[in-house]
Amino acid sequence: MVNVLNCVCFCGQVDREYAVQKALHSAGFPVPQPLLYCSDTDVIGTDFYIMEHVQGRIFRDLRLPGLSAAERVALYVAAVETLARLHSIDVTKLGLQGYGKGAGYSKRQVSTWTKQYRASAHRSIPAMDELSDWLGKNIPSSDNEVTLVHGDFRIDNLIFHPTEVTALELQFGSNWTTANLRSSSFYLDVSVVFKCSSSSVKAVVDTLFLQSPKGHAVLQQVQQFMKQHVLPAQQAKARAAGLWNLFLPAVSGLSQVDYSYIAEETGKCVFAAEVFNCQAPGLCVDVF
């Protein structure tokens, strides 16, 4: 059994993703073994690659319900150890020089944020100007350090051993689309803040907005109906109209600027990205 990855993400490229996963696997890092990359878009409508199937557990709920406190601690420790191992890899030995822009990531980020803010600001906000100046003057001393970061590292992107508290694999290549070369400290800070915030928000939402048993059952019926009947019908119409894989320049002939206007329009509907086959890669891993 293998996983066929149909990556439909405007921000990432499957060939780039295949290269980093292949390099990591050859170095003994726990990722599924990539088996084949196909650039022929006539096969399934987009380029794709095939990797091995990994048996294990994936925890979608960050609170890890059903596990003891000791088990939860052990799982998160295993996740952190996997992240530390990734950040300890010598990228030069992987042959990934030029994979990203490298040193100076924090400086580039602050510069980009500042330019974006000033371009969109319609009035002066002294506090924002002070923040921008402070950030520019306090770039971390480690900004020139370069390592490989995953880009979307979190507990539900890890495959754990079926019974033991061991992180078997950093899950599916679809989640390597945002991998890059930059400082690991910046990435770790953002990851911790985001994961803590998302977990806290979910806990509050689950407490305040409790569904009745009937409401939950009907919701599941609606979700299944959407998946089986609504989305497939709309996808067929999009394909027939030639509005498929518009995010792929090689297929659509569109520039990034062209597609940005289209993405703005499809963003007005919560499931439009799936209709036009332009959804995020984590949603499109099929098992054969």
Explain how this protein is built:
With 288 residues, this protein is an alpha+beta fold. It has three domains: 6-100 and 144-194, no CATH class; 105-138; 213-276, Orthogonal Bundle (Butyryl-Coa Dehydrogenase, subunit A, domain 1), CATH 1.10.540.10. 47% of the residues lie in helices and 10% in strands. It contains ten helices and eight strands. It has helices at residues 14-26, 69-87, 91-94, 105-120, 126-137, 184-208, 213-240, 249-252, 256-266, 272-275, and strands spanning 2-5, 34-38, 48-52, 147-149, 158-160, 167-170, 180-182, 285-287. Strands 2-3-1-8 form a four-stranded antiparallel beta sheet, with helices on one face. A hairpin with a 6-residue loop joins strand 5 and strand 6 (167-170). The chain is globular. 22% of the residues are buried. It comes from Astyanax mexicanus. InterPro entries: ACAD10-like, ACAD10_11_N, AcylCoA_DH/ox_N_sf, Aminoglycoside_PTrfase, Kinase-like_dom_sf. GO terms for molecular function: flavin adenine dinucleotide binding; oxidoreductase activity, acting on the CH-CH group of donors.
Distance between the termini: 6 Å
Order of helices and strands: EHEEHHHHEEEEHHHHHE
Question: Helix amount, in percent?
Answer: 40-55%
Averaged pLDDT, please?
Answer: 77
Low-confidence regions: 1-12, 189-198, 282-288
**Overall geometry:** globular
Secondary-structure-derived class? alpha+beta
Taking the sheet with the most strands, its summary is:
4 strands, antiparallel
Please provide the count of β strands.
Answer: 8
Radius of gyration: 21 Å
Residues in β-strands, percent: 5-15%
Instruction: Tell me the domain tally.
Output: 3
Strand order of the largest sheet: 2-3-1-8
Q: Helix tally?
A: 10
InterPro entries: ACAD10-like, ACAD10_11_N, AcylCoA_DH/ox_N_sf, Aminoglycoside_PTrfase, Kinase-like_dom_sf
Pfam family, one: APH
GO molecular function: flavin adenine dinucleotide binding; oxidoreductase activity, acting on the CH-CH group of donors
Protein name: Aminoglycoside phosphotransferase domain-containing protein
